[in-house]
Each structure stands twice: as C-alpha cells, then as structure tokens.
Amino acid sequence: MRIPRGARLRTGVTALLAIGAVVSLAMLVGVGQSVSPAQAQYGSNDGFDSATSISSLPFVDDVDTTTASTEPGEPQFCFFIDRSVWYRYTPSSQEVLRAAVSGAGFQTNINVYQSSGSGISGLSNIGCAQNGGSVSFTAQAGVTYYIQAGGIFGGAGEIHVDLHRIEAPGNDDFANAAPVGPLAYDASADTSAATLEAGEPTPSCFGSLPAGSVWWAYTPSSSGSVSASVSASFSTELAVYTGSSVSGLTQLGCRAFGGLLTIHVDAGTTYYFQAGGVFGQRGPLTFHLDVAPPPQANFFQSVSDPNIYETIQFFDQSVDPGQAGIQSQAWKFGDGATETGCCPLHRYAADGDYTVELTVTTTDGRTASIKRVVHVKTHDVGVSKIAAPQSGNVGQTRQIQASVFDLRYPEMIQVQLLKSVPGGFELVGTLTQSLTPRGKNQTTPFTFNYTFTANDGITGKVTFKAVATIIGARDALPADNEAIATPTKVSH
Predict the structure, then answer these.
(1) How far is 92 from 83, CA to CA, in rounded Å?
(2) Could you count the other beta carbons within 10 Å of the beta carbon of residue 129?
(3) Sign of the dihedral through C-alpha 145, 146, 147, 153
(4) What is the pTM of this model?
(5) CA–CA separation, 384 vs 389, rounded Å?
(6) Do 84 and 48 contact (CB within 8 A), yes or no?
(7) Based on the domain organization, do 239 and 313 belong to the same domain?
C-alpha cells in the first residue's frame, strides 16, 4: 500500500524524535554521575549484570528500590538485602574509597565486593555497613569493585548511594605535622588513606607500625608535663618523639590501646606525636593534648592506734591520673625522722600527735604531698595478783579479789572472774569501774563474792583467773592483763 507523502513526513519526524530521545537518555546516563528513579525505568541496575558503571568520582545516586528484587545466587553479608541494586567501578590507579548508603525511613545495608572471578559467583566481600554507615577500602588499579545496596527487614523505597575518594590527611607525613595550638587541644584526622614514610619509627609499645600514621607537633612555651591521648572506634597506638627528621627520631614514650601518654616537656623543644590504628585498622580518630593532671598522694598505716612499743608500717597508696606512674616517695614522720620508699617502718619513742607527710614524685617529675596526724597513745593496765581462799566448802560464799593497776591514763576497766572447769575456764562474774593512773604498786581491788558449787566439791578444787580489759582502747602490753590464783581446795 502506498503511504501518502504527508504521512511519510510525519512518520519520519516521529522516528527522528524517538531516536533523539533515546540518544539523549543514553548520553545522560553514560556521562552524568547521578541516576534518578525516573531514569531507572529505562535501564534498571536491579541485577548484577546490569550494574550501573561508575566512571568518575565523587558519585551519588538516588534510586527507588520498591520494584527491585534479588537474583539466584546473589551473595548476602551482614544483613539480607530484600531488594538490591548494583554498581561497579574500576579505578585506573590505586585509591582509597568510601562507599555508603542510607534510606528514607527504613534500614539499609551496603556490601562492597572485589571481582576475583567471572560473574556474580566470582565476588569476594571486603566490607559491609548498615543504616548510613560506610565501608572504606583500598581499591587497586585495574580491579573491578561492585557495590550492592538496598533495604533490610523488608524495607524498600528511595536510597541514597555515595562513593567517593578519600584523600590522605594533611598531617600524613612527619614534615607536615599539624601544629598543636593552645592547651587543652583537640584535633581529628581520618587515617583511612594515611600512609607510612620510609624510615618511619616503629612505636615500642605495640611493636609494629600503625596501618597509616598522622602527626602532630607541639612546641611548649614553658616547661612542665603534658598528657596526650587518642580516641577512635578501633584500637590505636600513640608515640611521642624528639628529633629533626623522620628517620632520626628518639622515642620518649608510647601508649597502645588507649590511656594517657604523659611526658615532661621543656620550653622551646618540639615534640612529635605519631598516631594510628593497630591490627590494620583505619578510620577517623581524635588526638587530645593537655596539661598533665597532678598525682594524688595518699597513704595508710598498719596500726590505727599505735603505741610506743609498736613498729608502724606506712604504705603508699598514691595514684597518678596521668598514668606515668609514681617513681619515688619521701616520708617525714613528725618526730624529726625521715625515710624513702613505698613502705617504711617507724616506731615513736613517746606518746603524742605526730604529723606524717608523704611527698610522691612521678616518672616525669610531677609531685604531690599529703599530711596526716598520727595519734600515739600507750594504754597500759594489768592484774598484779588475784587472791583466793586456800579452802572452801560447797555452798559457802567467799571473796576473791583481783588487784588491778593503771600506769598511764584514766581508764574504764572491766575485770572478768573465771573459774576452772574440765577443759578450760568459764565466766563467773564481771565488774567495771574507772581507774586513775597510780603506778604499778598502787593497785585497785576488784572484789567478787563466790559461792562454791556441788561440781566444785566433786572436782575437789577450783582455780580462779582474773582478766582485765580497757573499755574503748587497746592495751599496749596485754600479757600482764590476767592473773591466776593458787587453787582452792573444796570440800563437801
């Protein structure tokens, strides 16, 4: 059938317009690095074989995964992606990259793979992240890497995919160490793309170089002590040096796996801090430098209520918040005597109140002192004798008298009277009264009335013992606090 000329013209124009639209779309997808959900209907990256090719960085893409799916044999790591989209990137030179995905109101997961063989079965997973997290990795020149992204736990909708290059931090090299400003100082750096220099020193506390190092330089205007630390979501190491070149540094200190690194610094000298992750770990970290905190001096003594007959041992309980450690202890005992070391022994010659002072010094020279009054008071009472009758009869009441002396201070004294029974002694009675010090020859009587029992008659004799105790104090010489009478014969 013959087509009219006008119809042929209209058909040709329509065809040219359609071809132009396809060409324009192809150019938009191939050149642009941002693919919209509207464009995805013309060339979906739902499948591995149709992965969006990334030609330049940085790359971002907002894509709707509502109609996406998973395919047979599709790998899954960390969390199962219900509806996935795919991207691929082949760098022309080695780069450090970071890939991330986030969702609008639902949870997401991203996987990064290295192509180690043909097809989807030839992928090797090198990292995954969830809910806006990211995966950082070193991409080798000429190797193809795949990104798989989508919702988890049934989540679907628009996701935001981001792949960008991570540049080496500005203080990556020793020569470009970041200058430390006024203390307290905080600064952050990302070691994901940090490198190591030829001749870079190995910190001694961990025994191996960090995965990639960053440097800070500090020149104090006055001498003193400073404490440095590094915080990160991974294990770190931190070392400090002096010197003028990366291969000619002298280490002053090192700290791995957190904590404070405290050193003494001299005004005008530059100190270099090297920080990085261990076990190959990389990422953002924060460096902190501040004036070192003072040590906290403290001690305790072996006897809380000492007397002149006892030797006291003192124990250093000081701590160093700066974590450099206590190096030395100096003691003053308040009676003119001094000593050094952690745990000295001392005996006071006379009763009194003595101010004991402990001064501690850390390994970097910080000091702290504490003073505490030690009360030395010698309490001393005793039983000079106990008088009991030579004989007695069952049912008869007789007096037993203990003579008690007090040598030093007014005391409240309790005397217990005990009598012998098979296997030991049992309590008979107790008397309490106050005494004033009158010397050993001036005693105070404690008189008990005792009625002999039938058991005493069966045994045929009974022995009495008196024990004196100071109420509210400890006797310095307890050996003379009891006395035993001559046995009393008991008859029926």
Answers:
(1) 30
(2) 20
(3) negative
(4) 0.74
(5) 17
(6) no
(7) no
In a domain, 13, yes or no: no
Helices (H), 245-371: none
Cα dihedral 386, 391, 392, 394, rounded to 10, equals 110
Same-domain pairing of 143 and 201:
no
Q: How far apart are CA 405 and CA 303, in angstroms?
A: 25
Last residue of a domain, one of 165, 188, 208: 165
Quick check: helix, strand or coil at residue 7? helix
Residues in contact with 247: Cβ distance below 8 Å, sequence separation at least 6, in sequence order: 198, 199, 200, 201
- What's the pLDDT tens digit per position in 368-409? 999 999 999 999 999 999 999 999 999 999 999 999 999 999
Q: Specify whether 102 is located in the same domain as 202.
A: no
What would the pLDDT profile of 202-257 be if each residue is shown by its tens digit? 999 998 999 899 999 999 999 999 999 999 999 999 999 999 999 999 999 999 99
List, in sequence order, every residue forming a beta bridge with 317; answer none if it has no partner: none
Length of the chain: 492
Residues 6+ apart with CB under 8 A from 407: 380, 381, 382, 437, 439, 440
Residue 14 DSSP SS3: helix
274 and 154 together in one domain:
no
Q: Is residue 333 part of a domain?
A: yes
